[in-house]
Design a protein that fits this description.
The complex is a heteropentamer of chains A (491), B (645), C (102), D (512) and E (171). Chain A is built from 20 helices and two strands. Chain A is globular. Chain A has 491 residues and is mainly alpha-helical. Chain A has one domain. In chain A, a hairpin with a 4-residue loop joins strand 1 and strand 2. In chain A, strands 1-2 form a two-stranded antiparallel sheet. In chain A, 78% of the residues lie in helices and 1% in strands. With 512 residues, chain D is mostly helical. Chain D contains 21 helices and two strands. In chain D, helix 2 packs parallel to helix 4, helix 13 packs across helix 17 and helix 17 packs parallel to helix 19. Chain E is mainly alpha-helical and 171 residues long. The chains are: A mainly alpha (491), B mainly alpha (645), C mainly alpha (102), D mainly alpha (512), E mainly alpha (171).
Chain lengths: 491, 645, 102, 512, 171
């Protein structure tokens, strides 16, 4: 009895100090976490929550973003090696939080448009961001798993948040069932990894990878794990949920899913594969990633051409982009990691921006989502058209926008890894993809509308789109800034 | 004065600019005409002075080069704008400026009242400018500038009345035809230049010719050079097979036909060959080709001339035929003879054309000789001069044509072959016939023109040049009297040009000497033939009009063939022009370009789009199917793992 | 457990995993499909526990604990989603739920 | 080498101008027009300053401005010009104000956007010609597509959408190939210099050392990308569509400058970077060029649309340029360089004239004209002049280029056969055919359509546009030395780089 | 034939059979019941692996809480039976079963090839100690504190989510 008490005291003495310290170290995380609690309280007790919550969550997200930039040099591993701080982790944090903040901006009017306000929307959004952050910072499979689930569960709900729309229901159901299925696969993979590596600490796994890679069971486990995440990044052939879900989910959320979710999943893959990355020891999974990269790029671009619904088109384009980033994973060297992170940053802002614009143009109950709704937009609303055009050019990888440099850098890594053929497949698919990105511009600028396009709202969405555009331009013209930052923390 | 020779080039240019830019403002025909003519007249004077200056100089100092500035300078190529004043170019310059001046003056009268009088004179001056560049240039490229320049001017002047009909088509079609056919020649000329540059590493006459003289170069190369250059010459000087444009060129105003398509431009080819005599002399094979082609051209053109009824057409074909003579001369190595004939021909052919112009002018632009007749009493001056010219061209003893033509015939015999001589004589015979057919049908017999036409003598501004030219065509021959009459060195003309052709003649192996008796005999035969045919023409067309009809009736086939100029135009049209057009339109454009090449481009896009249409069906919306695909992926991945064991 | 080699457990769990996936692939009722997913999770758990006790590492079992939490959370959300759908379409047959396709 | 900011100004002025334009009220059209004109003229003035300060006795690049841009991959903002690029820069800066002035009245809608895009376009074009870093080059090369795409797409004809998209995708497909080659080259450079680099001077050292088996692929990638831009047969089909659909200004810039980027690229990159491959492939490329010359001319001959005719004539003319480049003799390369300028001037003038008459009658069908010489003599004279220059009449610019190219290719040891020149020279004949035929049908003959009688002759503004172009046409024709001397040194440098390996060795190298 | 083995075989058979029955019964409720049976047998297997705590949790949380929730929802929606399993898209479903079997075969093959038992020597004490609630608790609250916190957030999010989707407020 007594000794058990002392044991407890010992424990508390041992950990309390350090843990207080750690709460500062993970300030970005803790800001979001506390934000969640507070917003729950606001939602419960304030009748003005509809006005307060969005701004509150934006403040939380922005401050978290700021703090992650501020603390970026504070790189260490805490919580008994379950979480890493600083460095590229915080670059990811910045992506997530900024992306989410922009999403919130565009959500404000979007939710009004649908008349059904859920305070929970913002809470869940924050929680999903928390999940992403955990994934990005994870140093232990436990953290990865919990972060993943936190994010996924929030997304399941967010996808179906307009629960009165059967489209939203379908989206959330498909996302949920397939997501859970993927979770099952991931868990099984984790089980095998744990069994063979005899640990869940990524650092140890990475350290022993050379030995473990001879253990076929371990490789199988890794494969299942990776496949689970290939599902999350929506890479062919595990992409099939993406189009339906993006189309069904509310536009703003789709924006976050296609960016934050993807980015988080990629961060995990980078963490897990960092073992095989230095390239000196052979990259076991290169064939796997090379194949799914090629397939995703080609499939995404080709099918996107035949789409008429813009959200669906963007979904396929996001599949293609997943493919480009998988080139980086296949190449598997420091350049490619840097390339992927840069690409993710660029892609996040491009896509969030696009979805913001789409959300603004979208009318009541899913009108104006067809491409035909974009005819003559340049006359109706030149600003939106210009922004859209900019995002389209950036997505199609044209200089001087960020999208181009991401591709450029990833192709460099591919060529360095003697994957020139993959790079060539990449350019082939980007040529194809140009076609459907341009089509939007054609409709907006070149086509003469036979009927006046429906009135399109502006509101805060414009703000988020503009910020995204600025970020893209900055990243495009001065890619060195971010790049040197990333590479500085890579080694 | 020789150092100011470039003025002779510049003055016409100035005239062109003044008339071309301000011509429309100057509402005054006189002034325009004076500006135009004086520009040429002045340059004629300059040429004349420098001619006499050169004459004063000893033979070896008679060649000068006047450099102006560097034109093109790239790599090994260094082309100067520089003018070469030597015996040959001076002769040419005299002809061009002299005859040119007369024709300018004549045109003041002829073009009187034309709505774009100024434009005409601008073009004429531009032509003189180009022509002077052609003959004075000291290198091939500048010569080529003139070469194409005169082509352009002939294009512009043939199409001068661009809205008039001409035969089947319009004048502008004739103009285009002229330019394009000339371009074909120029194409050869260009290649010739390139080959010369490749061989001699220069395009400057002096360098090229000296090198050609000193360094041994394979005859094959010379052959190609000569051939290419001759293609150019044939294009310009309307030789077979490129002669088709010249008859059509008659669409232009008559002074133009006189100046460009008789006296000067068409002889550029002759000049060029003469200028490059050494190169040709080094390729005897090609020389023979030239001789033969010249002869054939002369002959066939003459045959066509026999039956033409358009007064200008007759003259046109006679021009072609006379040019054939000149090439015959060149071909047999008698370069100076060629040039000599060039000069005399310039006189009497220009005279003929101007006379014809005067007639046409009088007959209100009617050109069909069948509708003339008995004009003698209406326009005596024109008649006399025209008659003299006709005699001259027929080689009437003592007139200029006689000397030059017989010299050529003699060389054809002595340096060529008997056959050549016979054909030559036959041609001469026909020439005499159709010229006098023309004369008699026009000036003699009863008046066949309708009564609303009141023919009248042209104003003196037109007749004076006629007279001057008449005088020239009478006495012009006496500077080149054959040796047999004048004794050694008597042929001043040949003597004057000798230095230019000496190297070439040295290159050609000497021919066997022939006795004077032979020469006299041949001369007598040809003269007799000419006179005979003149009388025959007189008989047919004044005494027994009607014979012609019956004869033509007898040989209908032959007659039609001749009237239709051996159907050459038609053949070209259907064998070359049409196929190219059809192929380019039907095959190249409509099929190859639109269907194949562009089809490949659009096709690939189309295929991808359709592919998308198909592949998208794969996304069939059933959750379980999605899961199934995932499982499939997993299965395959695991399979890959197992294989990699 | 000395006499029972770990392979037995692994194979068993692999089998149940496969059965679970089969169920996911063939059942129409969304709830049942979800139950099959739970089956998959459990089979994975079995592997984890087997390893953890053969290795004498608690981590595996702790992880199982987390998996159960996740399962619970997913159950809550998933069933809520299914209910929402049922409200709109009054069916839980996933074959009838495919307005989004191509 | 002294640093100089002039080129940076050259790029910054139009860029700043276009950005400023965004803040101008679009209703204020006259101001916008003047603004655009003034900005572009200012650029022209700067380029003239460069021209005067340019020392054509130096072989290397001048007015260098160089600072690190993206240190991670050693990309630096590195600009500079030599004689070749100087000429093209001058051409660009000269044509831009001209085109802006020419579209004074013809552009009726969205004047602000138009001016904006034109200025952006100028930035892109100039950037392409002055950048000495492949990455930078590529950025400009691609970025320039965007404004052109809009210019065709918004202000174009009926099938503008098809044309613009085709133009965009076709060109981009090519340039992406080049991108891969650039990356490959950079990665290869890392093997030699130790670091990934795209700096041209460095790569000049690396390229020739790459063994032929690999080099040839890089060469082909570059070549295809440039061939599409030129356009070299059979990559030319985007050109007629783009030309016909684009507004006059667009066509002029397209023909005048954009096409030159292709040939410039070949000259600046393909030859010096991959000499072995260049020499070995020279005959094959030249065959394509010659085919292009004849093919383009023949197809042009049978066109019924004036713009299309001129477009195909461009295919023919650019064939000459490519032939000259791959002849790799001083004469030929010099000829090609001057011919680039010539084509820019004469074809530009032709497009302007076609545009002018189109503004009056709104048709480009040759058949709907005839006998306009009487009605609008000034126009007819101008058209004649432009046609003659494009036919290559001695004394006008066209002749100089074509003559030098043909001469050079005739004696070229690389091509080593007369056939190229003989066939190419036949293009000279066809040129006369299609040009004069078009001229005859449009200008000569009796007036075919009574509607034509009411045509107005060239206005002061139009004359003001054409005269400077004609002056240059004449200048180059009569005294080309002014321009030839600028590019002489640089051309020789290129040739020396390309023939670094003597020809016979290459023949053997090709064997293995 | 030791006692452990017999136990294992006993539970394993039940687990395997019940799982198969579970996916093959048309009636959802029956499937649910068999799933519960399956869970119980798995709990038994946990016991044979000395994982007392987990096996208890398995019974309480899974079989107890979660499955009850399932049954509850099933009743709520009174879902009809699926007439025949492989009605319509039968080929596809057969193919699906084949794939599942193939995956099983592959994993089994890999397991047998890898022979994990070869590497480790089972140590009863360690495994018993590992399974104790004390040990698990310590691990949970010290080493895996952060994931534990995350779990808290997860449950919060799940609750809120369930509320949003299922509550009747906006009807």
């Amino acid at each position: 009895m007594a000794e058990s008490l002392t044991a407890v005291q010992k424990l508390s003495n041992k950990y309390s100090k350090t843990y207080m310290q750690d709460f500062i170290n993970i300030l970005p995380l803790s800001i979001i976490a506390s934000g969640i609690f507070i917003s729950v309280l606001i939602e419960m007790y304030s009748k003005y929550s509809e006005e307060i919550l969005p701004w509150f969550s934006i403040i939380m997200l922005i401050s978290s973003a700021v703090s992650s930039i501020a603390l970026i040099n504070n790189t260490q591993v805490i919580y008994n090696g379950t979480l890493a701080t600083g460095g590229n982790v915080y670059i990811f944090y910045f992506m997530f939080t900024m992306g989410a903040a922009l999403t919130v901006f565009s959500s404000i009017d979007y939710i009004k448009k649908y008349g059904s306000y859920f305070g929970e929307y913002y809470i869940l959004l924050l929680s999903s961001v928390l999940g992403m952050m955990l994934m990005a910072g994870a140093k232990d499979i436990f953290t990865i798993f919990m972060g993943l689930e936190l994010m996924s569960v929030c997304f399941y709900v967010l996808a179906g948040i307009n629960r009165k729309k059967s489209g939203a229901n379908e989206a959330s159901l498909k996302y949920f069932l397939l997501g859970a299925f993927a979770t099952g696969i991931i868990v099984y993979g984790i089980a095998l990894i744990f069994g063979t590596a005899q640990t869940t600490s990524i650092e140890i796994i990475v350290a022993n990878f050379g030995v473990l890679s001879h253990n076929i069971l371990f490789i199988a486990g890794m494969l299942l794990f990776i496949i689970g995440f290939s599902f999350k990044i929506a890479a062919f052939p595990f992409h099939m949920w993406a189009p339906d879900v993006y189309q069904g989910a509310s536009t703003a959320v789709a924006g976050l899913m296609s960016t934050g979710g993807k980015a988080a999943a990629f961060s995990v893959l980078i963490i897990i594969l960092s073992a095989v990355f230095p390239g000196n020891n052979v990259n076991v999974f290169r064939p796997y990633f090379a194949v799914i990269a090629a397939l995703s790029m080609i499939y995404g671009s080709i099918v996107a051409i035949s789409q008429t619904n813009i959200k669906r088109m963007l979904a396929y384009s996001s599949i293609a982009h997943a493919g480009y980033m998988c080139i980086g994973l296949a190449a598997g060297n420091y350049e490619s990691v840097a390339g992927i992170i840069f690409y993710l940053a660029a892609y996040t802002f491009m896509n969030v921006g696009v979805f913001a614009v789409v959300a603004m143009i979208e009318g009541e109950n899913d009108t104006n989502l067809e491409l035909s709704g974009y005819i003559g937009l340049s006359r109706k609303n030149p600003k939106l058209a210009a922004l859209m055009a900019l995002f389209m050019f950036s997505l199609s990888g044209l200089p001087p926008f960020a999208g181009f440099f991401g591709k450029y850098y990833i192709f460099i890594s591919a060529v360095e890894a003697n994957l020139t053929w993959l790079a060539i497949v990449g350019i082939a698919s980007s040529v194809i993809s140009v076609y459907f990105y341009l089509r939007v511009i054609v409709l907006m600028y070149f086509s003469e509308p036979e009927t006046e396009p429906a009135v399109v709202g502006g509101g805060y969405g414009v703000f988020s789109a503009v910020i995204a555009a600025l970020l893209i331009l900055v990243l495009g013209v001065f890619p060195g800034s971010l790049l040197s930052l990333i590479t500085a923390y890579l080694k | 004065m020789i150092n100011y020779i470039y003025l002779t080039v510049l003055l016409p240019l100035v005239g062109f600019l003044i008339n071309g830019i301000f011509g429309k403002k100057i509402k005054n025909e006189k002034l325009t005409g004076i500006i135009g003519s004086s520009a040429v007249g002045l340059s004629f004077i300059i040429v004349l002075i420098s001619f006499f200056q050169t004459l004063a100089l000893p033979v070896e100092e008679r060649s000068h080069t006047v450099e102006l500035f560097t034109w093109i300078n790239a790599g090994g190529l260094n082309i100067k704008v520089a003018y070469l004043v030597d015996q040959l170019s001076l002769v040419m310059a005299l002809i061009v400026t002299g005859v040119g001046f007369l024709i300018h003056v004549y045109s003041i009268g002829y073009m009187h009242g034309d709505k774009s009088f100024w434009r005409f004179f601008a073009y004429l001056n531009l032509f003189i400018f180009a022509m002077m560049n052609l003959i004075l240039s000291d290198n091939f490229v500048l010569l080529f500038l003139g070469w194409e320049g005169v082509g352009l001017c002939s294009y512009l002047l043939i199409g001068f009345w661009y809205d008039r009909k001409f035969e089947k088509g319009t004048t502008s079609q004739a103009a285009k035809k002229a330019f394009v056919v000339n371009r074909i020649g120029d194409f050869g000329f260009l290649l010739g230049m390139f080959l010369i540059f490749l061989t001699f590493d220069s395009l400057n006459f002096h360098e090229v010719f000296t090198k050609a003289e000193l360094f041994p170069i394979s005859e094959k190369v010379y052959g190609f050079i000569a051939l290419f250059l001759f293609i150019g010459a044939a294009g310009k000087s309307a030789q077979i097979p490129l002669f088709v444009w010249l008859p059509d060129a008659m669409a232009g105003p008559t002074p133009v036909s006189a100046l460009i398509h008789a006296a000067t431009m068409v002889t550029a080819g002759v000049y060029m060959v003469a200028r490059c005599s050494i190169l040709f002399a080094s390729a005897p094979a090609i020389l023979t080709v030239i001789a033969v082609i010249g002869l054939l051209t002369a002959f066939f053109a003459a045959t066509i001339g026999l039956v033409q009824n358009d007064i200008k057409k007759v003259l046109a074909y006679s021009t072609v035929s006379q040019l054939g003579y000149m090439f015959l001369a060149l071909g047999v190595g008698a370069f100076s003879a060629g040039i000599f004939h060039l000069m005399t021909h310039a006189f009497f052919k220009a005279l003929l054309f101007l006379g014809a112009g005067s007639v046409i002018h009088a007959m209100h632009d009617r050109q069909d000789i069948q509708q003339y007749g008995g004009l003698k009493k209406y326009m005596p001056k024109t008649f006399i001069t025209f008659f003299i010219a006709a005699l001259a061209i027929s080689g009437f003893p003592g007139l200029s044509g006689f000397f030059s033509k017989d010299e050529i015939l003699w060389y054809a015999y002595s340096h060529g072959s008997v056959l050549m001589w016979i054909t030559g004589v036959a041609t001469a015979l026909m020439t005499a016939f159709y010229m006098f057919r023309l004369v008699f049908l026009t000036f003699y017999g009863k008046e066949r023109f309708s009564h609303d036409v009141h023919p009248h003598e042209s104003p003196s501004v037109m007749t004076v040049p006629l007279m001057i030219l008449a005088v020239l065509s009478v006495i012009g021959g006496y500077i080149g009297i054959p040796v047999i009459f004048s004794g050694e060195g008597g042929n001043h003309f040949e003597h004057w040009l000798a230095p230019i052709f000496s190297s070439a003649e040295r290159r050609l192996e000497n021919y066997g000497a022939h006795s004077h008796f032979e020469e006299l005999l041949l001369m007598f035969i040809s003269v007799a033939a000419a006179l005979g045919s003149i009388y025959f023409a007189y008989y047919v067309y004044t005494r027994r009009p009607g014979i012609a009809v019956t004869v033509s009736g007898k040989f209908k086939g032959l007659y039609k063939t001749l009237v239709n100029k051996y159907y050459v135009d038609e053949v070209y049209e259907s064998v070359i022009v049409q196929p190219i057009q059809k192929v380019s339109e039907r095959f190249l454009w409509k099929f190859a370009d639109n269907k194949i090449i562009d089809g490949a481009v659009n096709g690939s896009a189309y295929i991808i789009e359709k592919l998308g249409e198909v592949i998208r069906l794969f996304q069939n919306g059933f959750t379980q199917f999605y899961a199934l695909i995932m499982m499939l992926g997993i299965a395959i991945a695991l399979f890959w793992i197992i294989l990699s064991l | 457990m000395n006499n029972v080699p770990i392979e037995y457990y692994l194979i068993l769990s692999a089998f149940m995993f496969a059965v679970g996936t089969a169920g996911v692939l063939i059942r129409r009722n969304a709830i049942v499909v979800f139950m099959c997913i739970e089956l998959m999770l459990n089979s994975a758990n079995l592997t984890l526990v087997a390893f953890s006790s053969y290795l004498g590492l608690a981590a595996g079992q702790v992880f199982v604990f987390f998996v159960m939490t996740v399962a619970a959370a997913e159950a809550a959300v998933g069933l809520a989603i299914i209910i929402a759908i049922f409200r709109n379409k009054s069916t839980v047959n996933i074959d009838e739920i495919h307005i989004f396709k191509w | 080498m002294e640093q100089s900011l002039l080129l940076t100004y050259l790029l910054l002025i139009p860029l700043a101008g276009s950005l400023l334009l965004l803040f101008v009220n679009k209703a204020n059209e006259t101001f916008i027009k003047w603004f655009g004109l003034i900005i572009s003229s200012a650029v022209f003035i700067v380029s003239m300053i460069i021209y005067y300060r340019f020392d054509y006795n130096l072989a290397g690049f001048q007015f260098i401005d160089n600072f690190i841009w993206i240190n991670k991959i050693n990309v630096s903002y590195h600009v500079g010009i030599d004689g070749i690029s100087l000429l093209l820069v001058l051409l660009t800066t000269f044509l831009t104000p001209v085109t802006l002035f020419s579209s004074w009245n013809s552009i009726k809608k969205k004047v602000k956007e138009f001016t904006f895009f034109m200025l952006l376009l100028e930035v892109g074009m100039l950037g392409v010609f002055v950048s000495l870093d492949l990455f930078l080059f590529y950025i400009f090369w691609e970025a320039m597509l965007i404004p052109m795409y809009f210019i065709i797409g918004i202000w174009g004809g009926d099938r503008r959408i098809y044309a613009s998209v085709k133009f965009f995708i076709y060109t981009m497909a090519g340039s992406l190939l080049m991108l891969i080659a650039i990356i490959w080259l950079g990665v290869y450079a890392a093997k030699f210099t130790g670091a990934f680099t795209t700096s041209l001077p460095d790569l000049y050292k690396v390229g020739p050392n790459i063994q032929y088996e690999i080099q040839k692929y890089m060469f082909l990638a570059f070549l295809v990308s440039f061939a599409i831009k030129v356009p070299l047969f059979p990559f030319h089909t985007w050109l007629p569509d783009a030309h016909v659909q684009a507004p006059t200004a667009g066509s002029v810039i397209l023909a005048g400058v954009l096409l030159k980027m292709g040939t410039y690229g070949i000259l600046r990159f393909c030859l010096p970077l991959f000499p072995q491959s260049a020499v070995i492939f020279a005959p094959y490329v030249s065959v394509l060029a010659v085919i292009g010359i004849i093919y383009g001319a023949l197809v042009a001959m049978v066109q019924t649309d004036m713009k299309k005719l001129v477009a195909y004539s461009s295919v023919s003319h650019l064939g000459f340029v490519v032939l000259g480049i791959f002849a790799m003799t001083t004469e030929a390369v010099q000829g090609s360089v001057i011919q680039m300028v010539n084509h820019g001037l004469s074809t530009g003038a032709l497009f302007l004239l076609v545009g002018m008459i189109y503004d009056r009658t709104h048709t480009r069908e040759i058949s709907s004209y005839g006998g306009i010489a009487k009605i609008i003599p000034l126009f007819s004279v101008a058209l004649m002049f432009a046609s003659l220059s494009s036919i290559g009449l001695p004394g006008l610019n066209g002749f100089i280029g074509e003559f030098l190219i043909l001469l050079g290719s005739f004696k070229s040891p690389v091509l080593n056969s007369w056939a190229f020149t003989i066939f190419a020279a036949s293009g000279v004949i066809f040129a006369a055919v299609y040009m004069l035929w078009m001229y005859q049908r449009v200008v000569f003959g009796p007036v075919t359509h009574p509607g034509l009688n009411s045509l107005k002759d060239l206005t002061k503004r139009e004359i003001l546009i054409l005269v400077p172009i004609f002056i240059f046409i004449l200048w180059i024709g009569v005294y080309p030395g002014t321009f030839l001397k600028l590019s002489e040194k640089s051309s020789n440098v290129v040739i020396r780089q390309a023939l670094g390996l003597s020809v016979p060795d290459l023949k053997s190298a090709a064997k293995q | 034939m030791s006692f452990d083995l017999i136990l294992f075989i006993f539970f394993a058979l039940i687990a395997a059979i019940s799982s198969v029955i579970m996916i093959t019964r048309p009636s959802p409720v029956i499937s649910a019941l068999f799933l519960i049976i399956n869970f119980f047998s798995i709990a038994g297997l946990y016991l044979t692996l000395n994982a007392q705590f987990i096996s208890v949790v398995e019974v309480i949380v899974y079989a107890g809480a979660i499955m009850v929730l399932f049954l509850f929802v099933l009743m709520l929606l009174n879902a009809k039976d699926e007439a025949v399993l492989v009605a319509g898209k039968s080929k596809l479903k057969i193919f699906a079963v084949v794939i599942a079997a193939l995956v099983f075969a592959q994993i089994a093959y890999i397991i047998l090839w890898a022979k994990p038992s070869g590497g480790l020597s089972p140590n009863i004490e360690a495994s018993i100690k590992a399974g104790t609630i004390e040990n698990i608790g310590r691990e949970l609250y010290t080493k895996y504190l952060l994931p534990f916190e995350a779990a808290g957030f997860l449950l919060l999010a799940a609750t809120i989510g369930a509320l949003v989707l299922a509550k009747r407020k906006f009807e």
